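Q: My labmate handed me this sequence with no annotations at all. I'd like to see what the chain might look like in three dimensions before we decide whether it's worth expressing. Could you predict it?
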Amino acid sequence: MNRIDKTFQEMKQKRTKALIAYLTAGDPSLDQTARLIPAIAEAGADIIEIGVPFSDPTADGPIIQQASQRAIQGGANLPSILEMIRLVRKDCQAPLILFSYYNPIHAFGPERFAREAQEAGVDGVLIVDLPPEEATELTRFTQPAGLAFISLLAPTSPDERIGLIAKSAGGFLYFVSITGVTGTASPDLFQLKRDIARVRRITYMPLAIGFGITTPAQAREIAPLGDAVVIGSALVDLIDRQSASPDLLKNVHNFVKEFKEAINVSG
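A: Here is what I predict for the chain of 267 residues:
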């Protein structure tokens, strides 16, 4: 069983919610990313999204855009990230998801990508700009490799499109809680409840809620609506601000732990 599916099965049995944490690979360096991933898992993150830096990250807000630029300038790219994950897998068994745009994968070669991602220990992929109509270009390789193809759902998605996306997705659905890019606004809880209720009428796939969740208090409020809460820009911002600190790992660990404890309280 895929680690992602196993995680959500365990969460359901425990009647609790999963915490998904996002960080940009290579920010502040790939060596630091390799240390941060186990620290984040030990702090309570159930699934970790590893962002592949891209020069034109259209869905990302300024915090993650700047992290991507720093990572690219530091030499991070898809081959080096896969090698980093291969090394991390020796000490970390948390589900790992590559969060990417399609251009780096297309340049790398989708068949080669699926093979090497599976060999490195990746559990799933989330490709921001690959719609379901074009997804077979990649999923014909990722599905045989056992990689979950995770898809985004927008608040503006009509019912028919939600059904189409859910039909081709694997692992879980990532519900974007705001209209706009990451880290630029806070979710409207009332509207979010209505949106999630509409999605639930169409699919019972595990649902992760992200974009705009920056505090443990927000995570505690939102967790009961879905199956997982995603923290991204707030964590990336902390890593940037603490990048030169000798207490980087400790501070990141404590930050993630606060979110996990808040989610557990909500449960």
